[in-house]
Design a protein that fits this description.
InterPro entries: Cupredoxin (IPR008972). Helices cover about 20% and strands about 45% of the residues. By secondary structure, it is an alpha+beta fold. It has one domain: Immunoglobulin-like. It has a five-stranded mixed beta sheet, with no helix packed on it. Strand 8 and strand 9 form a beta hairpin.
């Protein structure tokens, strides 16, 4: 009988330690993200549905930052997948700079919302 009472506690401990071990040991600390070196700078303009320069892929190392300045001809919103949901309000004619830090490997899109345009992809390696 005693073993049966201990079983739920043992399962709970295993679940707790199992979940704790799922965290990425390579995850960047908030300090590392804030001080990430700028590896690349880009300026992009959007006029209607025309993106200048044309959409391309930027290579970025984990722990490196991309400084992206976007100018649009109408109010819009910028969204960067894979960068902790980085978003920025874009105002017509006003350059907006966002800093994107590669915290995990993958290929991620940076896009506007209205119209929905992919202005850039970022490959974090």
């Amino acid at each position: 009988m005693r073993v049966n009472r201990a079983l739920p506690y043992a399962i709970g401990l295993l679940a707790l330690f199992g979940a704790a071990s799922c965290g990425s040991p390579d995850a960047l600390s908030p300090e590392a993200i804030a001080s990430a070196p700028v590896a690349s700078r880009m300026e992009i303009s959007v006029s209607g549905t025309t993106i200048t320069p044309p959409p391309t892929q930027v290579e970025l190392g984990v722990g490196q930052a991309l400084e992206l300045t976007v100018t649009v001809d109408h109010d819009d919103e910028l969204h960067a997948h894979g960068f902790n949901g980085a978003e920025a309000d874009l105002k017509a004619g006003k350059p907006t700079t966002v800093r994107l830090v590669g915290t995990e490997s993958g290929v991620f899109e940076v896009e506007t919302h209205d119209p929905a345009l992919t202005i850039l992809t970022v490959a974090v390696r």
